[in-house]
Amino acid sequence: MNHLDLVSTTHGVPHPPPPRRGRVQDSLFSRLLVAVLILAGSGLLLYPSAASWFTAVNQAAVIEEYHAAVVDADPADLARQLRRAKTYNDALSAGALLDADARKPQGNGVSSDPSLDYDTLLDPTGTGVMGHVRIPSIDVDLPVFHGTGDETLRRGAGHLEGSHLPVGGPGTHAVIAAHRGLPEGQMFDDLGQVEPGDRFSLEVLGEVLTYEVREARVVEPDDTDELRPERGKDLVTLVTCTPLGVNSHRILVTGERVDTPVADTEELRAPVAEAGFPFWAVGAVAALLLAVAYLLVTRRRQHQSG
């Protein structure tokens, strides 16, 4: 017996291989973990697009419901609601505050007629929708709700209570606010791109009001002059916060009433454009297929390796 044989017999006691079941379980866990990471990473990347798509679908449904309610309503009732809104405006001491610590303006106008409850005005559907605003230059069409609470502004634009209701008229100044940078969807994200000369329109109780932008400004929070009514002027100001995530200033886009072209009336009363093809769904399916393919390929390789 040589030296090598002696070493192998005295010190070379073979170690038994680890149980196969344990190796299989460890491998399965690792493969599942990788598949879950693929799906989770894809979900994080696709969430903004998916959330924006679902929000657009919901907003289109809200506007369509509003259209249907207006079409089905008694014309005399619509006329009565418009009269009440204008009476409210006549009784309103209008104004607005741009609080530096708030993400949205705050209204401080008060109606001198307590019988005119703000929440019951311009609400044909009973859901708080008073109309919708369309800004062609940035491809935005949002429902306009009563008030500017955080939950409201996650669903669309909000009318600033304390400013005039958006039914037009000399000496009125309505304020419409919306967020920027929400993952749930595009609101007033591109409002800073709207320029003087651009137009936007509001549809309220079947009436279409068109405004031409006369001024677009970034202002300090305490600069409220641009939100005050002007004698003889029919104004609407669109408001959002800037810069994103800081909200230290406000973008104000103020439009003055002009004659409404027939095309604007037809477009705002037409069915709302669909949200478009959900390309995020293609990415979701691709991620799912990639995760399944990874599991199948690694499982086959494991079987081949014994």
From TrEMBL:
Top-rank lineage group of the source organism: Bacteria
- The answer to keyword Protein transport applying to this record is no
Is Heme found in the keyword set? no
SUPFAM superfamilies the record matches: Sortase
Q: Which UniProt keywords apply?
A: Hydrolase, Membrane, Transmembrane, Transmembrane helix
Q: Which Pfam families match?
A: Sortase
CDD domains xrefs: Sortase_C
User: Residues in the active site?
Assistant: 179 (proton donor/acceptor), 241 (acyl-thioester intermediate)
Q: Which InterPro entries match?
A: Sortase, Sortase_C, Sortase_dom-sf
Where exactly are the transmembrane stretches of this chain? 28-47, 277-297
Gene3D superfamilies, from UniProt? Answer: Sortase
GO MF, any single term? hydrolase activity
User: Where do the segments described as Disordered lie?
Assistant: 1-22
Q: Protein name, please?
A: Class C sortase
**Which organism is this protein's natural source?**
Nocardioides jishulii
